[in-house]
Amino acid sequence: MKSENIKLDIINIKDERFRISYYFDLFALIRSIAEIGLIHPPVVTHRKGNVLIVTGWKRVLACQSLSLPSIPCFVFEGQDDLEAFRLGLQENLTFRTFTLLEKAEILSRLIQLGVTENDVVKGELSLLEIPQTLNHLDIYLDIAALEPEIKAIIHSKNMTYPVAQLLTEYSEEERRLLLSSLHPLGQNKQKELLQNLLEVSKRDHIPVQDILAGEDIQRIISAENLSPLQKAEEIRNLIQRKRYPTLSTWKDTFKSQKKDLEWPDDIKIEPSPFFEGEEYTVQFTFKNSDEYKKKLIKLNELVSHKKISRLLKSSPKKNNE
Amino acid sequence: MSNPYFPKQIFIDKKSLHFPLTEKILERTSHIPTEIIENAQDLISDFGAKRDPLLLGKQTLLITQQRGVFVKPCPCTPGYIGCNYFIINTDLNCPLDCTYCILQNYLDNPLITVHVNTENLWHQMDLFLSRHRHHIIRIGTGELGDSLVLDHLTDRSKEMLGYFKEKKNVLFELKTKTTNIANVLESPPSETIIIAWSLNSARIAQEEERGAPSVAERLEAAHSVMKRGYRVAFHFDPIIRYPGWEEGYAEVVDQMLTKIETQKIAWISLGSLRFPPPLKEVILKRFPQSRILYEELIRGKDGKFRYFKPLRIELYRNFVKFLGKAIRDIPVYFCMESGDVWKKVLKKEPKGKEEVETYLSLPFGDSR
Description:
A: elongated; B: 15 helices
């Protein structure tokens, strides 16, 4: 590849045929170029009188925002788009790893450029450290086809592959309705909400939109005294109760029996996860031997209480156990 | 399966070409295209990349050799009570396509695979039984594939029954969902040989056990085998919750007790739906119409999904009710359950897998 000084105003940034990155922050790069200049020239190519970026979108955009008149570039002289795209891919791989969205974009571009699904599976999936199956390719292509505002959330919340995969299971309209509830939550809670909602919908044969339009959810959404995070949490809890009604009743019963027993807040008692084992965990902290003794005395009182057996059974009456 | 299984294509590992079992299979499948391959592992990797490797794998037979051991202890699952069972892995995978099948996730190889180096199997078996000659062993095929579904191609059961009928300290079990019992009926029965069927409610059999015979057909086959003089067993596993499960399972238990004499039932096992988390994705992908994932499944002590315990107890207690007085005559056990479930449902809590094994081995046929 030859090296040329290219005027920035002749680079056609509207032609995005080789572009794989859309969600990034240029601030650090702009500062670096302003201080020490452009160290690593982008790669461009000529197509029908246009100069297109093969690789180095961030660098070009950063230089544009610094109003530089021209920058050094490598020029790819071939006319094969696929060859140019693969060159860009290899060039990027030498100095960084790709994000989830970039991987999805790369795979989508390869298919658009005429590479067969089987060739992508055998070649680029391995290069991108993705399991080499058509099923994985399908999911990445679905992620690439998501709406820009959803992709922006995937990027800003640094969502993982399983969460993004769950988003592809929803319709565009459903995703739009879910945005405000998803945004304030952390990744695990996002995944839980998306999964439970989908499963309730399938189990009860009720469209997601109808569940979200339900009176209970609408009441939370319109509550003026709740923050966006509180609303999202309440919706998540509500959907979880719908998904696991028996387990939720058991948890409620345990909680109310603890209250009935006047169990102190500074001594934690927990059943085994999902009440699966027969063991309970008691946890407390203390600063000195007096405090330790006091808590043991309190525990002894509690264990002698006639209501303790009800707590340790925690079984709502209507269940068989 | 009403129609016996035939693959659409057969691949033969070059080194397995001249085994008697290979020749037998090829003779019986002369109408099916075959290809000799150098490396079975390459073929398995190619299949793994397909969109539905499992479906394609079910249409393809691989003839190869078992490189490792044929006989292994049943792995059971951590945190729950096992039964000290041993498994013989002759053939892998199954042409039946059950929604819940653990093999969809358990095996890397999606092809129906027959291991033809049977001489190694018998050699390993002799050594294994010699090591365990001082106590009763419960052993069977049917863990990594149905015991009888390929029997018209391999005659595997004939060989197995011939070998095990002479072994006095072994309870040998064949486990199937099929009616492929011609070889079993031709073979002389023995008190130490048990032919077992996996049973489910008619609805689950119809909706979630694609390609398998109906419950009535399975029970008819069990009846024929019982009449031939064999003891039979039934595995209600996985028991699945769905709207109307009580009636569905009451019906199948009633049909079983009507069709089969209780003293001819060696044992009944009960196990509710459970599976490792990665299987969920496979089920969602392969069986999007199935509803079995949407009941209250929690993570058990072993990390697998299983029904919330009170719901399992409810299922099992109903089974005990359906079995009625027959439960006095039939050993009933749980597959992969916790001690407190045993206690709450069957009023006994085995201390460990050895105790379950003893419980199941005690009724060692009418002659003991």
